[in-house]
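Format notes (please read before filing issues)

Several people have asked whether sequences and structure tokens are stored in separate files. They are not. Every record keeps both together, in the order shown below: the sequence lines, then the token lines. Line labels are part of the format and must not be stripped during preprocessing.
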Amino acid sequence: MTTSMPSPATGTPVPAPAQRVADEQPRAGATAIEQPQPQAVAVVTEDARAHPVLDVVIPVYNEENDLAPCVRRLRGHLRDSFPYPFQITIADNASTDSTLGVAMALEGELAGVRVVHLDAKGRGRALRSAWGMSSAPVLAYMDVDLSTDLAALLPLVAPLISGHSDLAIGTRLARASRVVRGPRREVISRCYNLILRGTLAARFSDAQCGFKAIRADAASALLPLVEDTGWFFDTELLVLAERAGMRIHEVPVDWVDDPDSRVDVVATAMADLKGVVRLLRAFGSGGIPIAELRREFGRGPLTAAAGSALGGSVAQNGPGEAGTGAPGAPASGGSGVQVPGVPRGLPRQLLRFAAIGVASTLAYLLLFVLLRTATGAQAANLLALLITAVANTAANRRLTFGLTGSHQAGRHHLQGLVVFAIGLGLTSGSLALLHAGSDHPSRGLEVTVLVLANLLSTVIRFLLMRAWVFRPSRAAAATADPTGVGGAAARHRSHG
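Then the structure lines:
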């Protein structure tokens, strides 16, 4: 009989490693292809099969030749090296060959194998359906070609079983990864992940590796928000999870490219770029309830006490709790140990504000020099400062102070114009004093004076934005429910 032990994350009973038995017989009505050796073959008990801890989904489309060897190899690996009950789900994506027949034969022959058939294509559609029907607390998927070494499967799902992480991905771009593939795919993969980092501020390293896992409670909250049904499904899921403050575990993998792969790389890349644009629009409009997900799944900032006793407090409280932090506290204040005397989130805000300030200053100086050739110094200063001030306020609102959507955006920009007026007064006053002291100052001297005036203006701008325009009380109100619709993604974890 299979025993149970509580999950450290939620308190939900997770079946203990199944007891190995000496022999296995095929299901009734199935033909045994090979006579099993009693001393070498072991499977889980009936009770264990009824309550799998892991469900590995294999989405397939016209894979009649590769499907059976893949499933047998995967099942053999799980049977011999995976210490928990498992299930393998074949998700057939409207195959037009005999793939479905092969899958049904495997389901009848092998215990722990099930088949899900869909009438429409799309890897994302297949995963959504198969994961949504599964009762396992940990869900995974891998490509049918098994390009990824299966030795990485247990390291992939172990942090999810323990409750340490919410999602896990295999990465081909880590230094410890070993990858064999052509230069074309290598360049496309790296460029795509660079685009994700630059546009969506993604911090995961490999979005498209077909080797991922997710906790079922995280999947139930994220899947209703994922719109893509094709190859961009993975990226969209990961970006939403990261924005929600979920922990994503990465495992370096050994990966050999399948030379028979039928994926249209160019068409997939174009679809992915369209998906990136769609996500940017959704985040900009506040159409995705990220704040609600962050309150539920986000890990709160560590306190100094929690930092010194991390091993005990986090394990006891589980995901979403850190030391004395409230369950599911949002992590918007920044990560890391809280430093006494330093306002929460200030170091990260300073770094982002400084980076935006450098970019704004360079853009301002470029605009000033270009406009100065066609107009006077004061007019060029006014236009250059106005253009960069609007862009600066929008960038700081989104990146430095974490506000999205249109809620209070008008007021923020009006207050930003007040801050702009102060900066205009400082720079214009500096130019006036310069021209009062010298009839024909050089262009280099003008730029130097403006740089110094802008430095002072930048310090004042940050203080005003933090204490007035985007002060924490307003920031909390603006992000609490940017769409005005509550409960769209409210999924409550069970903490036992």
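For reference, the curators noted about this record: Residues 409-437 form the longest helix (29 residues). The domain at 4-22+35-285 is CATH 3.90.550.10 (Spore Coat Polysaccharide Biosynthesis Protein SpsA; Chain A).
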